[in-house]
Amino acid sequence: MKKNLLFSSLMMLSISIFAQGPTLTLSNFGIILGTTVNKYNCDTLNVTPGNNGANVTWNYSNISINTNNQLQVNYVNPSTLSGSSSFPTANVAEVSQSNETYYKYSTSELIQLGTDADGTIMVYSDPAKVMIFPTSYNSSFTDTYNATYNYMGINFNRNGTINSNADAWGKLILPGKIYNSVIRIKQVQTVVDQCAYYTQNSIITSYLWFDGIVKSPVFVIVIGSSNNTLQPGLTSTIKAVMVDNSVVGINETNQQQPTWTIYPNPAANSSTIAIESSVNNGVLEIYNSLGSKVYSQNINNESNSQISLNTQDFTNGIYIVSLKSDNQTWQKKLIINK
């Protein structure tokens, strides 16, 4: 009888934990060296953040996903980047296009140390806390940060605040995929950039849905607004909606992934990409660990295509080989080791 009661109590406890949505820790949050995250932009029309609270259902099954508009983010060792000397305590860097963001993480928190955007380096004298671990439903924190930087010869001071709150959990419905247990984090960031000539005020509100398995948010809504003292009364607004590429992969049931291989892999001075299936209106692209495109070739064949790659000028490391056909994208890793 006691064993049955204990078993029932444990079952009720596990159901209660599951019902609150996943708990985020460093291990399932996704700040891992060598990780590449791909997200697609979506049409923002009629997309709203929805409700907060417990056991919410967010239905975005009708959103339009633009698989031709992909955002690729790479997490790399800071020492491999030219701007790393400005961030000596960083242990991971996020690279997206030409922007580098430097972080220091531990089992209890993730701290942003600053950025290098096209050579404009911003080092936070007071770093910004962007996540705490563990994070579960109703977890929250507030943090302030400060930085000075020079942009086009003008000295700026930046002050900001981050208010983060895991404000909801429930079911997330996306095109082709349903997440039965997700947690939503709402972050409101206020930014004041000031120089001798003007002041710009910005507010950025981000809604991030996590399933605790995919090591990045599976769905993101960002809403921002800004104004400055040079144009009083004028406010600029932005809105962005993004989904993880795993959603697209499941939704693409009408086109099967082509059969293609890369050999040898790891490679030294050369490698071959063999595409056995038909690929129409295709493009083959290769990206390095910084997210920079290092190779591109158009493909339009029926089947059995072989592409020879000269990798003598490639540095050692992990590369992402992206095969695109119409609105589809498939990826494989290529390792160069000479």
Q: Could you explain how this protein is built, in words?
A:
The protein is mainly beta and 338 residues long. Helices cover 9% and strands 57% of the residues. It has helices at residues 2-19, 26-29, 245-251, and strands spanning 36-42, 53-59, 65-76, 92-96, 99-105, 109-117, 120-132, 140-151, 154-174, 177-194, 199-210, 219-228, 236-244, 260-263, 270-275, 279-287, 293-301, 305-310, 317-325, 328-336. It has a 12-stranded antiparallel barrel. A 4-stranded antiparallel beta sheet has the order 17-16-19-20, with no helix packed on it. The protein has a 3-stranded antiparallel beta sheet with strand order 14-15-18, with no helix packed on it. β5 and β6 form a beta hairpin. The longest helix has 18 residues, at 2-19. It is globular, with a radius of gyration of 23 Å. The model is unreliable at 1-18 and 249-255 (pLDDT under 50).
Task: Give a summary of the structure in a few sentences.
The protein is mainly beta.
Features:
338 residues, mainly beta, twelve-stranded antiparallel beta barrel, four-stranded antiparallel β-sheet, 9% helix, disordered N terminus
Q: What is the helix tally?
A: 3
Mean pLDDT: 84
Structural class: mainly beta
Unreliable spans are 1-18, 249-255
Termini separation: 66 Å
> What is the topology, as strand order, of the major beta sheet?
1-3-4-5-6-7-8-9-10-11-12-13
The biggest sheet amounts to: 12 strands, antiparallel, barrel
Following the backbone from N to C, one meets helices and strands in this order, namely HHEEEEEEEEEEEEEHEEEEEEE
Gyration radius, rounded: 23 Å
Tally of DSSP β-strands: 20
Strand content: over 45%
Relative helix content: under 10%
- Report the principal-axis shape: globular
